[in-house]
UniProtKB/TrEMBL annotation, chains A, B:
This is Transketolase. It comes from Paraburkholderia lacunae. Mg(2+) binds at D159, N189, I191. InterPro entries: THDP-binding, Transketo_C/PFOR_II, Transketolase-like_C_2, Transketolase-like_Pyr-bd, Transketolase_bac-like, Transketolase_fam, Transketolase_N. The gene is tkt. The active site is at E412. Substrate binds at H32, H263, H462, H474, R521. One of its GO terms (cellular component) is cytosol. Residues 356-526 form the Transketolase-like pyrimidine-binding domain.
Amino acid sequence: MSALVPMRETRPLANAIRFLAIDAIVRAGEGHQGVPLGMAEIATALFTQHLKFNPADPQWPDRDRFVLSNGHGSMLLYALLHLTGYAQFGIEQIKTFREMGSHCEGHPEFDTAAGIEVTTGPLGQGIANAFGMAVAEAYLNAKFGDGIVNHHTYAFVGDGCLQEGVGQEMISLAGHLQLGKLILCWDDNRITDDGSTSLSISEDVSERFRVAGWHVIEVDGHDIEAVAAALAVARLDPRPSLLACRTVIARGIARLQGQRGGHSGKLFEADADAARNELGWPHAPFDLPRDVLDSWRDAGRRSQAEYRDWHERLAALPADARAEFERIQTGRLPDGWQRGLDDYRKRAIERGEGEGEAGIVISAEINDLLAYLPERMVGCADLEAPTSHKRSLHAFNAEDRSGAYVHCGVREHVMGAMANGMAAHGGVIPLAVTYLAFADYERPAMRMAALMGLPVKFVFSHDSIGVGRNGPTHQPVEILASLRAMPNMRVFRPADAVEAAECWVLAYEHRSGPCTMVFARQTLPLVRTRHEPDNLCARGGYVLAEAEGGNRLVTLLATGSEVALAVKARERLQQNGIPTAVVSLPCWDLFDEQDDAYRLAVLGANTVRIGVEAATRFGWDGYLGERGGFVGMTGFGASGPAQALYEHFGITPAHIVAAAKRRL
Amino acid sequence: MSALVPMRETRPLANAIRFLAIDAIVRAGEGHQGVPLGMAEIATALFTQHLKFNPADPQWPDRDRFVLSNGHGSMLLYALLHLTGYAQFGIEQIKTFREMGSHCEGHPEFDTAAGIEVTTGPLGQGIANAFGMAVAEAYLNAKFGDGIVNHHTYAFVGDGCLQEGVGQEMISLAGHLQLGKLILCWDDNRITDDGSTSLSISEDVSERFRVAGWHVIEVDGHDIEAVAAALAVARLDPRPSLLACRTVIARGIARLQGQRGGHSGKLFEADADAARNELGWPHAPFDLPRDVLDSWRDAGRRSQAEYRDWHERLAALPADARAEFERIQTGRLPDGWQRGLDDYRKRAIERGEGEGEAGIVISAEINDLLAYLPERMVGCADLEAPTSHKRSLHAFNAEDRSGAYVHCGVREHVMGAMANGMAAHGGVIPLAVTYLAFADYERPAMRMAALMGLPVKFVFSHDSIGVGRNGPTHQPVEILASLRAMPNMRVFRPADAVEAAECWVLAYEHRSGPCTMVFARQTLPLVRTRHEPDNLCARGGYVLAEAEGGNRLVTLLATGSEVALAVKARERLQQNGIPTAVVSLPCWDLFDEQDDAYRLAVLGANTVRIGVEAATRFGWDGYLGERGGFVGMTGFGASGPAQALYEHFGITPAHIVAAAKRRL
């Protein structure tokens, strides 16, 4: 499909990568040479003969995706971006490797405009992201056809990524889903940071992939043509492919190659000099011979005809299909998309207080209203979703790529990382659904979403001791705090159907970072009894019920299922002549962004403030002030009926009233 | 080795389990019948023919361990404990299944005195705990010989546990370590809570185990004698064994068996009646025929001769070996064990302020002093440890079980869960070591340690932006807060060599729960310049330097590497005539346990309090009060030299001084 770079020229091309990495690492005084020196030939084969990309338009939607899952080898990526002509990676930038403010950071940091598809470093995340990209590609391919979406996803991967549980989950699920356009190149160098891989693994990794339904090719990772040929075979196979590339870590540094120190042992100028002699590279540091650079730049232009053809096909699409494709690429929602949710709010209030509904049912009803959004995909870890019931979405599987519902099995971690990969890919709004008690299982992926600012919705059910008799393992008490502690992660815990609709609007509209959506298993009685045109949750916290009969003396602050308890407590306090307000705080992150005057007005200056949440106090003190109190959990939960647990742990209107009175 | 229960009697034995489970679940109105009904025959084979145990002494050190990794099937365990005669599980207790205060909780909760080896429910944890138990057994066997430690570890496991990444990590590592006494019984029922396993997995699970070096036997899980025979073979094989037991979920409930609803669909009395007819079980609910119960009680007494023989062998041990064995069983440390650490404190102060040492080196030095403790085992995820350098511990591996250092590979999650299993096993004090940025990878295991109150030490290096140029993926900013939020988890972040020694003393002495030990990669200059006989860290926080020249106006509160910055800031404030104290807060959990008077005296009533930590503010407000300020991170880090990052993010003495002055 792409013109071959003549073979005699390829070895210098690989060495160009190798010496850019050596020179940058020597200059920085630290770095990880193992990957760029060990995978230089593999990268040369991929980038000069297979990868579909356009350095002049790094965000071309139908480009092949390339993920450096072993992200500590970041100089490999920076060298490739420099050599193929990405504007942000000029040679001066390469010289700033690992300096403050450099684009050449210690690990690659997500910036698709610059050519970096995803942040990598925490092991296993990158290959799981790549898997998510391949899922998104297959789904969009089914929607828009081969002419518009038809690309591969390549990932480079080291032993560490494959040892990690999330990597193993990915192997199993990608094999199950038979994602034929996903191709991994494994840097089989038999060394990790700790020493020989034989210290910690004995299994035949290739066989492990084969068991999971992968196509595996074993190849000499330093033979460019062999790797290129293997990639050609991999691209034709309907299964996901592993190229098991036998390599020598840090190849070219005589003192370290093939050894533990190859990973990141310090490189000195003498090492660089020796490598220059050994490999016949007489050029000065950062100096690339013209013909080599020209060949690389030619490689960077290899896909130009495909790029033009693709744009012609896009232009030829029917107007509505084209508009839809372009819309979902931007992440913009259709005009008026939230109208159905506004109506839902109104209907909830018209239905009246009544019995309320389970939090997870409310969330499912709301998401059912959005089933028309083609860009929405739901990953679910062994749970009927508090998002969209399966009735409104059908399964994405090996036979049918049009389904928007991915059964992830009991694999929360890869589910979260898959969602990140989908969001990084673009064209898809991913949701990842499981129980809140198991948020910790996907937390490393959630952190990556927050760090990258990816618009993933992490959705959780069973959010407190309200889970009931499944007991403390299944009852989150500290997990809200641990998620609120995460920068750039918006955590929403709505109190009723109205707040749930408002929070979902805010979540879908938030595009610069992930959201955590938390829903009770138990019934959420209606606490918002009057329709408001505004989205009251948009400020994160608001006065749900103002004090009456005098200046406010007490402010009850609550979230989620405990707002209804605060409302009941307020009634009693008001009956006792104590003017009391209830503040609902569905999203602390948004509330903290409000100005001081608003926050203080809501929190109630000089009032006794009582926080109410069926969770631990950690993180609440900033709102409560020095006179404040807290009604909630002080440790893990217990096994018993939900109502009995609330009584047992003293999270009741009576306890709230008592806590307030004690402080007056 | 044990007398067989005659075959004709075994089917009623399995049905006794089945009907106890059905009756308890019908009574409770909810439960998970899938496992107890599907695994009743497997459990009968194991408990009546193989398991070495003594219900009269559930904590017999050399008992076989039994872990119900699919813990949602808890009624299987409670039924077995009842049938074999554990005192805490009388029939009245069984009738309280899932009620508040019952020992028969929704999921099994750790209580070795009652016969529950480990809390299970979060999937994958149990099998990884079992793996840790098998590691502990092999290690102690090498120390004390076959006569004293020589038992198997059995775990029941469902599809969910095997899909989880932690389960996959366990398969790989247990195969590598060739733990021949670890035997899993897989409930191969092809159903998960979400539906058929074919929704989310295609691989041949048995083959996956074989690739990892396991011995696999496929067997009909409803054929008691076949399972018993397979267990006999498994016990003889030098490899870890998987019994792949083909089963029918919820077998016996005609309406649900073999179907998704078998997992936990509601059972009604009519279902129980139908099952009674179907299986020829005419007995009333909770009523067991005398002969069946007698057979089960006989099974519970099967190991009595072995039990007596074992005690005789223990009594015959040389006195010192016996004393040591008995000491490590209790978890008690040898008298005067901390003397070396006290000396270390003194020496650190005598060495003087100087340049200080890297936090991780300090921790390694301290732990090197403890290499004489035979009960200490270190699991390490691809990192030279900030605990004991490898020089003082040799590797535990397939050939040599005497090593106390387990190379876990890049598998943090199974490392943590392994440590939990070791601690639950007893006789071993486990440490689990990795980078703090990757604490999230083992967090689900850390939560289980906290919930169970297991004395595991979770040790972390590279604790802040001080990591430097590896960038934000590798820089914890929110992770301290997320761990402090966890109930029953003591988080220590020492400021220098003296505090490190004190914190390690506290960690080793803490036996009712886990500790998190956090160390800086960078140098920790000495801040404790005067030797104190007391362990000042024991109260969690203390005045490191009192204000001088008048009433204290400012209190600077800091932890870890930022204490030295606070000390410098104090000097400047004092020079400006502002009496300022520095408070070190190495362990919030311990500080929060102190009485109000102590805490207020330390925090400084009516002073301006400034928190200083290279982490986010979340959780600090309770200490800072309404006038307080915070110098730290507001989001994720960046890639650059450590010192430049501290400057960039404004975590410097100058910023601390300015923050204090602004509030005076």
